[in-house]
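Section: Multi-chain targets

For targets with more than one molecule, the full set of components is provided together so that the structure can be written out for the assembly as a whole rather than chain by chain. Components appear in the order listed by the source. The example entry contains two components.
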Amino acid sequence: MMLGRIEGFGGVVRGRAEVPPSRLALWWRRWGVNAAYYGLCTVLLLMFLFPIVWSLLTSFETAREASASPPAYWPSRFSIENYRNLANYGEGIGRYVWNSGSVALLTVIGTLVLATLGGYGFSRFRFPGRNALFMLILATLMIPFQSILNPLFILLRLLHLQDTHLGLALVYTTFQLPFAVFMMRNAFDAVPIEIEEAAVLDGCSPAGTLLRVMLPLVGPGLATVGLFAFFGSWNELLAALILVSDSRAYTLPVMLLNAQSGQLGAVNWGLMQAGIVLTIVPCAALFLLLQRYYISGLVAGAVKA
Amino acid sequence: MVTTLFGYTIPRSWAAYLFILPCLAVTTLFFLVPLGMTAWMSLNEWPLLGHPSFAGLRNYLALFVDASFWGSLLFTVKYTLVVTPAIFLFAFALALLVQRGARFVGIFRTAYFLPVVIGMTSASLLWTWLFNDQVGIFSALLMDLGLVDEPVQWLGETNSALASIVTMVLWKAAGFTMVILLVGMQAIPVDLYEAAALDGAGWLRQIRSITIPLMRRTFALALTMSFIGSFLAFEQFFVMTRGGPFNSTITIVHWIYRASFTYFKLGYGAAMSMVLLLILLVLSGLQLWLLRDDKE
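Its structure, encoded as tokens over all components, is:
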């Protein structure tokens, strides 16, 4: 069932009904209403962006100014001191970016591969237990991952995956799978069967058909699934806190949390802002570039329900 | 029906199982097995290091008389009941605002949604700083405006800490609910509004008589999603108040984490996880029931 769609955020939506009075009155009314409308929207926009912009500005203050009390309203001079301090924090910021980056990348790859295979299997084949197995994967959505973290801790220790990028990525991939398989199955369902039959007639094996014919056609679905996997793993705190105990293997959120705890009660606020900006930038950039895929994922989730 | 895979001829249904096998294997190993283990661990005395010993229902009995557990459960319910309607009303207003096909509306939608993607931990760290009494902007602004005489300890008192965190979550999560509501809002046929306008119905009347009644399902979805999400709240409290002052802002997930990995009682944590799981299953069941297809 389709409830309607949003074509990316930039898309213009059909206008709502208007009463048709005289042209002049309409012009005046619209002008006043529009001024109020855009005024309100802009105030809200500033409120939503303010915390991010404020943090960004502060991150470019000097370390002393960023920790000043009361805070300065405007940086007195531009400085990258906070970013220098961040670069040398702990094991060096490169280490934590590498940890978070490789966990996120492994999660994205793992989710894409598993969900593509699974989604294709569920979409294109009839076999005993098909519906039951699909429901089983979807049902995992009803159980919060927060309630199975204790055994996951034991399990990763048993498998010698504690403190490894792969271990954390496997856990994140598992959390992503229900949504991802659902998305990919829908994406494959939307490809006309004739295209595949033509490929089979030409002598393509199932694996070959999937790889060479189908995969290019489900690109948008892959983008959606990949984005959700990235945001989910890059920003995750609780599982990373539990499953990683070696401080050299900390991901960015865990490292930032430790920095916020402060050394002997003194928090380096400038360094914190630099770290927060560094964590936010990849997410914001990916979202701004690929938002239509992210939103279509949300819409699919909303329509499914 | 047969097919070929890497040069071998096999029945087509075998190929299907091969495709879904990796996905099932990972789900089994990292989801179903841990799920069973949670149930088993909850019946054991399970220290972080050293050997577990069978304890029967002792963890559950201890949990039943544990004031901290009930306190955290109560606080989680309180937080959920405050934050869910707050997000919903704010997001509904936002959705009404950005649903029209006006110029630049895409920019506003994007800006309102942006905080959703930046991660709960970064958002919490950011707002801890904004709310800080010494270096935070909110306290400084109030002092400079002459409204208060000394720095405000936003996060130092239970109710103001809750209000501060709800404010942060509104900023962080309203965009998500806004999109869900927009989807439902735009599924309403335009002719309904046109007919109502012809009959002389004003903007408010149209919302009351068309938008709201036709969006019941979407409302149910948005409300249950944020209800379930709020029930699992962790980062915002763990980062912003650390459960304080005097353990008055500990959520259930936070308490499970603390019992398991600060006090090293994994079995006890697992018993609480089972209770959480049960609550969430009931909530999800309720969600499915509310969203059931009336046609069937």
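The CA atoms of residues 63 and 189 of chain B lie 52 Å apart.
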